[in-house]
Amino acid sequence: MRRWFQNLKISQKLALISILFVMPDSVMLYLFITAINANIQFARLEQKGNEYQRPLEDLLELIPEHGQLALQALGGQQLAIEELPTKEAQIETAFGALEGVDNHIGADLQFTDEGLAKRKRERARVSLVRKEWNDLASHLKDLTPAECADRHSQLIADIRLMITHAGDMSNLILDPIMDSYYLIDATLMALPQTQDRMAEVMADGATVLNQADLSNADRQKFAIYATQLKEEDLDRINDSIHTSFNENPNEYGFSPTFTPRVSPALEEYSKAAAKFIDLTNRIVNSPGLGVTARDYLAAGSAASAASFNLWRIADEELNKLLQQRIEAYQWRRTRSLFVAGCALMAAIGFVTFITRSISGPLKRQASQLQSANGALQAEIAERKRMEAALRTAEEQYRGIFENAVEGIFQTTADGGYLVANPTLARIYGYDSVAELQASVTDIGRRLYVNPQRRADFQRQIEQTGEIHQFESEIYRKDGSVIWISEHARAAYDDAGALLYYEGTVEDITERKRHEEVLEKMNKQLMDTSRRAGMAEVATGVLHNVGNVLNSVNVSALLITDRLSKSRVSHLAQVSATLRENAENLGTFITADPKGSKIPGFIASLAERLGNEQTELLREAEGLSKNIAHIKDIVAVQQDYAKVSGVVEVLPAASLVDDALEMNGAAFDRHRVDVVREFDSVPPVRVEKHKVLQILINVIRNAKYAVSESRREDKSIVVSIRRNGNDCVKIAVADNGIGIAPEILTRIFAHGFTTKTDGHGFGLHCAALAAKELGGSLAAHSAGVGQGATFTLELPIDVQSAA
């Protein structure tokens, strides 16, 4: 070959060199033109996606309007019944346009059975969506309002799925040019999103605004709606379109109609949306409803119509921007071919000149290259050694990565897995990492049981750059739910843009299971404590009955003693004496010394028997009262047991009287003065047995405190007051031994007591019962010897108060 080349003529050598030089240049030119053609095809495919979206956007406007009319028609509104046929005709027209564009360009956008099945979007087939609409329209009269709303929601979701598929397959979502990119963000993502949200908000508004009042849950929901409509929809659309305005002069030609056409439509939409958002905020912030359903739906319809008008104008201008880009690419291709031809001619001349100029110096440098070649070989050997070392290190890292106990991941910001180890795949129930990456393309929707947890994850990591021990419930591949704990950080490039999230995942399901068991055991312990408190209430009742029984016993013994010592037996003796002297009774009484004493004896005996009768009647009356008291105590206890667990509306005074009566005998025995200071207050809504449990504990403690004080003036003051608009305050104040400050902080603790025979359940259970009733129990004391006050707050029954 060398000899053959040396035998060639100079002109032949130059021609061969030129050809060899032109070949790579031609390849580069080919690749360059191919790239330009690819960009042209890219933009044309975007135009097809834009064209396919137009009838879908019409349906996205018409279907919610049809849904509202359908609900009104099902409710019997004649105007809605008359308007339904017109709206259905408009929907039929839109479906006809959709079928036409699907026949024309549907295959290019992979709206085929194979293309949709590959992406699990079979429901996005035009024929299926059309069938779904026909079925809804033909059976509309047979549907309930709830079924009607569900069917419309499903139809809208399928249309949104078709818009998403058209955006994905037409490269709209991947547009690389700033002005069209932000305009596509508005038309493909933001505007359909806000149209869906407005329809949802209007539907909820129509339901809620027809009610008498809004619940806190409704106000919270509309506060979220207002924030989303403002921040996620209106602000995003304004920002995207204004960015597109600013970038338009910097891209492939300036569109003279873009800003003049889109700007008024954007302003109209912004005003309508702001009015709708303002009405939504008024629903949240007004004490009453503040907004009529008619005004609210009118504002929502105006904002929705303005959004669809903005979408159509922006879509037309987007087509113009794409056409300008195509024309710019075509001009660049023509210009590149011309410049490449000129460059090729210049290159051929330059090669000829260079060949003649450097042939000599090349020979001299040949020897230098040979010596440099040896050095290069040595460098190559060193590089191979370093590459072998790197491969060894990589194998070590791979071993650690694949055999780690915890799952290791690296994900994109939108929830797709870039990197994962086999442990992570096993945790989530997948057979391989490849299956995990293919199946889970959106972590927030596919894995998280509660998608809000994913939103919390992203919000926290965006704020701090890292997150630790973030616990969530996750779906495994088989649908089962596990608990995981995540550690992650965000990685950014030099410009501060987010690259990916990376971190580790630990399966904590077993730990959560143990925590649940522990919680159940704790609940059982609390129930046991409550039952112990109930036992204390019963003990108190039995103690009170025992006190009364002591009095009954004393009265019974006294009656028995009086009867045993009665002089009624003497009356029988006098009667016998009189019978013995019946024949001469007058002489016996007047003349006989023994007989003359009988009238005085009878008078004295009658007086003594009268006194005995009075005493016995008094004791019998006391005995009867004590027995009635025992019956009352038992009746109260029976009522208390009978209504256990039932919420009742009761007067606070009757509850306090029952508790005081159950301790009445103890008050009498210990000579405790009870003062009632009852204000007129509304009834309370409570469980009676729990309130009695609390009051009996507190009153018995007060009795114990005044008894231990050894005071002569033992006093307990029970007061009932209204505390604000929502509760009644029952206070039990005593002048007993008081409570030390260090004890006051522990008085409601489980098992804590200052009594030698106490168990520490009473006040602890009373505080728990007060909390369960929606109230509270508090204690106050100025110190030892200063008495104490226990205050029970119970919720007022709102209806009775009104």
Please describe what this structure looks like.
By secondary structure, the chain is of the alpha+beta class. It is 69% helix and 11% strand. The protein has 25 helices and 12 strands. The chain has helices at 2-7, 10-74, 78-105, 113-118, 126-138, 145-169, 178-208, 216-247, 258-285, 293-402, 422-427, 433-439, 443-446, 451-464, 509-564, 568-580, 585-590, 593-596, 598-642, 652-662, 664-669, 688-708, 741-744, 762-772, 798-801; strands spanning 407-411, 417-420, 466-475, 481-492, 498-507, 647-650, 673-678, 684-687, 715-723, 727-734, 776-780, 788-795. It has a 5-stranded antiparallel β-sheet with strand order 2-1-5-4-3, sandwiched between helices. The protein is elongated. The relative contact order is 0.04.
Strand residue content: 5-15%
| Count of extended strands | 12
The chain-level mean pLDDT equals 81
Uncertain stretches of 5 or more adjacent residues: none
Helix coverage percent of residues? 55-70%
Instruction: Assign the structural class, choosing from mainly alpha, mainly beta, alpha/beta, alpha+beta, or little secondary structure.
Output: alpha+beta
Cross-sheet strand order for the largest sheet: 2-1-5-4-3
Rg (C-alpha, Å): 48 Å
Principal-axes geometry comes out as: elongated
Main sheet properties: 5 strands, antiparallel
First CA to last CA: what distance? 112 Å
